Amino acid sequence: MPSHLLRKILLTLALFAITLPVFFCNTPTTKNDDGDAQETSKWKNVYDTAAHYVGMQTCRGCHEPIYQTFIQTGMGQSFGFATKQKSAADFSPAHALVYDSVLDYYYKPYWVDDSFYIMEFRVADGDTVHKQIQRVDYVVGSGQHTNSHIFDVNGYLYQAPITFYTQKHRWDLAPGFEKGASTRFQRMIQIECMSCHNGYPDFVANSQNKYTLLKTGIDCERCHGPGSIHVLERQTNAQVDTSKGPDYSIVNPRRLSTELQNNVCQRCHLQGITVLNDGKTFFDFHPGMKLSEVMNVFMPEYEGAQDKMIMASHVERMKKSRCFVESGKMSCITCHNPHVSVKFTPRDQYLNACQSCHGTAAGQQQCTETAQVRATKNNDCVACHMPHNSSIDIPHVAVTDHFIRKRPAADTVSKKITAFLGMKCFNNNNPDAITTARGYLEFYERYAQSKELLDSALLYLGRQSNIEATKKQNRDYIRVYYLLKDYQKITGYAAQLHPPVINDAWTAYRIGEAYYQLQKPDSALPWYQRATEIWKYSPDFENKYGICLLALNKIPEAQKVFEFVTSENPNHISANTNLGYIYMQQGNNTMAYDYLKRADGLDPDYEQNLLNMAVWYHSNGKSELARKQLEHLLKKHPANERAKAMLLDLAQ
User: Fold this and answer.
1) Going by fewer Cβ within 10 Å, which terminus of the chain is more open, N or C?
2) pLDDT over threshold 50, residue 9
3) For 69-83, what is the mean pLDDT?
4) How far is it between the farthest Cα atoms of the chain?
């Protein structure tokens, strides 16, 4: 290989622009400077900032019978350590193997003594050519529908790529990992996800997915609010006779208005596109608040989608029902006792809820079906009017459809989605234009990369004309044009801004990326640096800052950044690749090879690392191994021109 070609490739190896994926579970927010009036409540623990969480074991001290039934519910069993007792999965050889046919990986879950592992491997020509073993630390889900799996890397949480689907009694790729979309062991568990699948954790605020302490299951205070005021009052004052009136030291959801009752449940059972209000976090909602004080939850509306539902959309489906619309008093606890598992709830409890409006009393609308047909369903209202329905987001799962209809089966016959109608907010009838625009942007990033969604976002952003809204819109316009890859527009906004005044990490990152894509790394650097100042514990942002330093030939500074990233997360693929490159530049072949091989073990198809390894092999007189690396690279990434040039050069 001519030395000038090798030098050229070496100089460009680590400058490969790695654009971070735009989908993350939550959208970072800026400080709220609106001066909005604070709501008030007669419940003392709703808005009192001194109120704090005391933990379920404290509640248990006085409420042992309720505790014993609650911990058997889906909420109580929502999250736990990866133990044989917690897992509902079948590990027998006949079931415990999953193949990702698109990415060509096998996954095998197994136990070694009391430790749970998932092995990823690839087979070629009868040999195992790749193997990665990851220990699993936590199981998510009660096992009624699924068990998903989470592992911890120095406090950073990630989802494993396979799930056990208990209804079908089978292992398969985790939701969202199908059809080539698998991120393997790289999907971050961010606070939006964790805050609904578990009790509130201790979260490292300047991170995306780092935690210092996790609960094991959703707890009492998620529905009743922080318990410190209640505990203090019960320790210092006489008991309150709740048969005569409320104990206002802690929220009792049954004593809330119907709207506020549903707000408690729809915090997590209204799964959709969540847009946090400015200055709010996923910790800020307390039972007794309107959910819209903290967040707005949007759902896409389609013509012909009556039968289409996502798994945790219970409130959205219920709100479509005439029972909800016309009664004005229907809430989740009309039918459910949150303290008792659905597995142990008598069927009569649900049927009695139906009969309270559709019974034999004068003036009540009764069932019009014939007695003969009703008998075939054992006079079970739920079986006819709320049948099980498959979810569109979780495979192999069917759940009760809370869209109550007279003829559900007839509604679903030959129905096809014919048109996208727009985004509808299900917890706020009048979200402002900026919030609605953000709903469209979130939907674009997560699910549907349609330019029409971005056009709609721009339309809504244009409806806000006051000065304060215009100031707030900078980050939203930057976000839109980032998704449109209109980097010139972004730098036009950035010219009016300075990094220190930006408090949103994503905005700083997007500006940095715009300059970088325009081949202006010197202008990009302070924006990347600002993103890492806001989110110090975001390995991805730190890694991109390091790449920009490399582009500016600031090798020692870049090396420190990559070493910080790997100290935080030793499994960070790109940082290992970049350190391998730096050590190649320094002539330290042993250290270079160690880092490159580690990156290869983490992802044998990672484009930049395959190219780096080919150069390393060639530079160390192993041209045949270099050729194999390049051939594999082109098999997985056929458009890589540098690999083609190197392969041609090796053939000469």
Assistant:
1) C
2) no
3) 96
4) 95
φ and ψ at residue 419, rounded to 5 degrees: -160, 145
82 φ/ψ angles, rounded to the nearest 5 degrees? -80, 90
Residues in the chain, how many? 652
Determine the pLDDT at residue 576.
Answer: 98
Question: Is 16's pLDDT higher than 70?
Answer: no
> pLDDT band at residue 214, thresholds of 50, 70 and 90?
very high
Which positions ≥6 away from 43 have C-beta within 8 Å?
A: 225, 248, 250, 251, 288
Q: Are 543 and 563 in contact (CB under 8 A)?
A: no
Q: Are 354 and 87 in contact (CB under 8 A)?
A: no
Give the pLDDT score at 26. Answer: 36
d(CA 149, CA 508): 32
The candidate with the shortest Cα–Cα distance to 539, out of 563, 511, 507, is: 563
Q: Using 50, 70 and 90 to split pLDDT, how confident is the model at 418?
A: confident
Does the CA dihedral 394-398-402-404 come out positive or negative?
A: positive
Strands 187-188 and 170-173, bridge-based pairing: unpaired
* Mean pLDDT (whole number) for 538-560: 98
Q: For the packed helices 505-517 and 521-534, what is the interaxial angle rounded to 10 degrees?
A: 160
Helices 487-494, 505-517: axis angle to 10 degrees equals: 120
Q: Is the domain covering 1-30+536-652 a CATH 3.30.420.40 domain? A: no
Concatenate the DSSP letters of all residues of 162-207 into one string. Answer: EEEETTTTEEEEPTT-TTTT--TT-EE--HHHHHHHSSPPEE-TTB
* Mean pLDDT, rounded, for 418-441: 93
Distance CA 549, CA 14 (A): 10
Contact 423, 459 (CB under 8 A): no
Q: Contact at 8 Å (CB) between 139 and 82?
A: yes
- Where does residue 613 rank: exposed (0-12), middle (13-18), buried (19+ CB within 10 A)? buried
Contact residues for 75 (Cβ-Cβ < 8 A; gap 6+): 217, 218, 222, 338
List phi, psi (to 5°) of 212.
Answer: -105, -20
- What is the spatial distance between Cα 454 and Cα 439, in angstroms, rounded to a whole number? 10
Q: Which amino acid is at 310?
A: I
- Cα dihedral sign, 623-624-626-631: positive
DSSP state letters, 52-64? ----HHHHHTT-H
Report DSSP state, residue 420: E
In whole angstroms, how far apart are CA 23 and each of 20, 74, 273, 323, 393?
A: 9, 28, 12, 36, 16
Report the predicted TM-score, pTM, of the whole model to 2 decimal places: 0.90
Beta-strand pair 146-153/156-159 = antiparallel
In angstroms, the Cα distances linking 20 to 43, 160, 402 are 44, 20, 37
Q: Which two tokens stand for residue 539?
A: 């390995």
Instruction: Please state the domain extents for the chain.
Output: 1-30+536-652, 77-217, 257-354+377-464
DSSP H helical ranges for 366-466: 371-376, 381-385, 408-412, 433-446, 451-461
Tell me if 527 sits within 8 A of 515, measured CB to CB: yes
- Write phi, then psi, for 131 (nearest 5 degrees): -150, 130
Point out the least confidently predicted range of 275-279, 296-300, 307-311.
307-311
Structure-token pair, residue 254: 């049954």
612: closest CA among 129, 10, 3?
A: 10
Q: Is 368 helix (H, G, I), strand (E, B) or coil?
A: coil
pLDDT band for 470, please (50, 70, 90 cuts): low
